[in-house]
Amino acid sequence: MTLAVWTSGRGTTSNGPRSKLIGVPADVAATPEAASDGRWLFAALFFAIVVAGNAALLSWFAWRPVVRPVLTLFLFVAAFAAHFMSVYGVVIDSAMVANVLQTDLRETRDLLNARLLLTVLVVAVLPSTWLWTLRLARQGWLREAAWAGAGGLAAIALLAALFFAFSAELSATMRNHRALRFMINPLNTVWAVGVNAYEHGRVHGGPPLPIGRDARLAPASPPPLLVFVVGETARADHFSLNGYGRDTNPELAQRDVLSFSAVTSCGTSTAASLPCMFSALGRADFEARRQDQENLLDLLQHAGMAVLWIDNQSGCKGVCDRVPAAQASVLPAKAAPLPAGWCRADGECYDEALLHGLDERLAALDPARRARGVAIFLHQMGSHGPAYAARSPVARKRFAPECATNVLQDCGPQELVNAFDDSIAYTDHVLARTIDWLQTKRRAYATGLLYVSDHGESLGENHLYLHGMPWAVAPDAQKHVPLVLWLSAELQRGRGIDLACLRARRDLPASHDALFSTVLGLVGVSAAEYRAERDLSAPCRAP
Fold first, then answer.
1. Which letter does DSSP use for residue 241 in this model?
2. Which segment of 55-69, 449-463, 467-481 scores lowest on mean pLDDT?
3. Is there a contact between 65 and 173 (Cβ–Cβ < 8 Å)?
4. What's residue 9's pLDDT?
5. 489-513: per-residue pLDDT in tens?
6. pLDDT confidence tier of residue 28, bands split at 50, 70 and 90
7. How far is it, in rounded angstroms, from Cα 451 to Cα 482?
8. For residue 412, what are the CA distances in angstroms to 127, 131, 244, 397, 422?
């Protein structure tokens, strides 16, 4: 259940070329002989720390009635964590634990494969079977307590001695390679579960604090209709609108959209990003909050707008709890059935299902609110991995051959990129169809579309796959997200927006922090929580 880690020297980091010797001073690594000695010294040191840390934790469970169940649990935790860390390059922190707890059966299915089963068999099942065949001697509880306490104290003393003796090397290593602290298996998982439980209890201890009680929607004729599409796992550098060499956005390129090319996400997972991107706080204050607040959807509803969330994913992570919400696969009563082939037997539907029956869903909203303005939020399946090939229908695939398995290492790099790019091109089609639907509503509404992905994705760069790395150490691929804006002439005119001015600002740095105030600015809602400096349209909007 231990994991000693050092790099192979391949790849680069955001701080430049990756050092071949983590924690080994440059003067020690100056010669091949010294480098070899330094490598083995650090490996031995790290191994001892991992063993001592696990022993310090497990020794307190060295009681005859519980020792085998606890060790079995830890073996299975270590097996699953080792698989995902070694295969996908992820690390286990509290955000990753939150992802696991909120994963649905469809996402779990995409992660199951023979390699995972083999890892669990070798690392957990076989040792656990042997463990349960052992006969444990019966001892009095005082003697068991003495042995457990002595073992725990000895392990703690060893840890203290190692940290004291090698404090300089360890502090430099942990400062420059912070991901290492999340890779001590299974201590990292146990620690992450505890942190997640603490954070959940701290933040979700009561009802969310109200916001937007003073929110007012400016009268407009026609009223606004904004569709906000929440993308999933899309990368900005794979959008041809942003200069990507492949034509992944052929349909959006024909619809006079604006693509903001330098947008950073709140987090690197849906569970982290989704609540943050709809918060009025911004990423830094959201992470430091002591209690949950209401969000953008609540405020728009307080302002009198009709709000609707339609989900084709594993839920809204609490964002839509207080507004009308529906699943894409559950159609309103008067809507025609979904076309054959749009949904699989397991219930997962392609993202075009979000648009099916949209007229009927709009008509079913509260008439008084609908007359003032409408905000519809569509939550995509998008490019969710590792089964990227499952995210786009066969008729919409543009790039071949594509990776058709969820064991990403079994695919060539180009096959993996092909499957991912097919999902991006399908998102392009879904967004274009959404704009076309909005065009049909221009007699009654001033329409607009805002699309932004919740986070990005690693596609094997530096041996990393998927997403969910801690934000501070995550690569740009997991944080650099696309943001696309389309505004009808009616919305531009009604809100006094200069589209040429916005186009000139499309490459300026921005982040998810801008979404809350940008939406308020686009639909004409005033509130105390509005921040003009975070509104992407504010510099280009007439007073």
1. G
2. 55-69
3. no
4. 35
5. 999 999 999 999 999 999 999 999 9
6. very low
7. 8
8. 34, 40, 20, 18, 16
> φ and ψ at 36, to 5 degrees?
-65, -45
- Burial of 148: CB neighbours in 10 Å, binned 0-12, 13-18, 19+: middle
Residue 359 CA from chain centroid, whole number: 31
- pTM listed for this prediction: 0.80
Query: What distances in angstroms separate CA 480 from CA 265, 460, 531, one per listed residue?
Result: 6, 16, 23
- Across the range 445-474, mean pLDDT stands at 93
What CA–CA distance (Å, rounded) separates 535 from 532? 5
Q: If we measure between CA atoms, which residue out of 540, 534, 444 comes closest to residue 492? A: 540
Give how far Cα 33 sits from Cα of 9, 22, 27, 250, Å: 17, 16, 12, 56
| Nearest-angstrom CA–CA distance, 151 and 506 | 60
410-418 own/partner pairs: CB under 8 Å, 24+ apart = 413/459, 413/460, 416/388, 416/459, 416/460, 417/459
CA distance linking residue 520 with residue 222, whole number of Å = 17
pLDDT tens-digit readout, 99-152: 676 766 666 777 778 888 888 999 899 999 998 998 877 777 777 778 778 888
How far is the CA of 82 from the CAs of 88, 107, 356, 493, in angstroms? 10, 19, 42, 56
CA distances from 423 to 8, 419, 434 (A): 32, 7, 16
- As given in the structure block, the two tokens for residue 447 are 């329409």
The CA-CA-CA angle for residues 12, 509, 179, to 5°, reads 35
Contact partners, residue 82, CB within 8 Å, separation at least 6:
3, 119, 123, 185
Count of residues making up the chain:
543
Which residue matches tokens 């207080």?
A: 322
Tokens of 423: 């999902």
Q: Give the range among 187-191, 206-210, 266-270 with minimum mean pLDDT.
A: 187-191
C-alpha dihedral, 484 to 490 to 491 to 493, nearest 10°: 120
